[in-house]
């Protein structure tokens, strides 16, 4: 029980603490020998009352050298001389144990750090691999954002590049075909929602298959994209409008008449789903930019 208590008391200290305790023990016992009454030791050729002699005797006692030139006679001196080497052995043992524990801890920490780095590199490779597929889907989605947000007269002359600063009036030809789609009868807005659905499905698979804990910004951008599309689900309403040519003409006129930054009209209005679509696309493009920035940061 005593040994367990002592071991528990001392095991958490650094090795240097025990080294200082060992030196302190020499000095303390030297003081004890110095203040013991005259005649406590047999000293044939030395003066035990000299502090240097006491320090010398304390050192050879704790190191168990035992030259025999000084011998304890009195009971207190014998007790002190008995306790000092025992205490010294304990301190040496604790010192070596602390040193071994420190080395073992360092090795363990190095192994954990190496394992964590290895796991991180595996996750990073997996992220890059999945990102290659997702990036293609994003590029495909952006192609149809271009069609949705670019008047038809400009689609044939301008390169297919997304303009994040597009205006509400730029969506006036959303019911017209894309001009670069194999199915020419489908409108730009119909194909946009189809590509948006493909992208949201891809992002869901991305989140389920990829560990993104090391990259919270990437995960947050993907989640926000899904939330944004879910909250602004107006594809059904717009699909219904496309079946009525008169409604489509009214909507196009309203889009052309609105200011560059539209707001929702009060009550039930034909224009509100298209204001929602405008804001949805703007937010999605911003989230895609955040995703790309986070990927660049993660792979740098």
Write up what this structure looks like.
The chain has 300 residues and is an all-alpha fold. The chain has two domains: 2-111, Orthogonal Bundle (Helix Hairpins); 122-299, no CATH class. Helices cover 69% and strands 1% of the residues. The chain has helices spanning 2-10, 15-35, 51-62, 75-148, 152-155, 188-209, 216-231, 235-242, 245-257, 272-299, and strands spanning 41-42, 71-72. It has a two-stranded antiparallel sheet. The longest helix has 74 residues, at 75-148. The relative contact order is 0.08.
Task: Please describe the structure with a list of short key phrases separated by commas or semicolons.
10 helices, 69% helix, Helix Hairpins, 300 residues, 2 domains, mainly alpha, 1% strand, 2 strands, two-stranded antiparallel sheet
End-to-end C-alpha gap: 56 Å
Mean pLDDT: 85
Task: Enumerate how many helices there are, as a single number.
Answer: 10
The total tally of domains equals 2
Radius of gyration: 41 Å
Helix content: 55-70%
Output the structural class. Answer: mainly alpha
Question: Which strand order do you get reading across the main beta sheet?
Answer: 1-2
Sheet of most strands: 2 strands, antiparallel
- Shape assignment: rod-shaped
Helix/strand layout:
Layout: H1 2-10, H2 15-35, E1 41-42, H3 51-62, E2 71-72, H4 75-148, H5 152-155, H6 188-209, H7 216-231, H8 235-242, H9 245-257, H10 272-299
Antiparallel strand pairs: 1-2
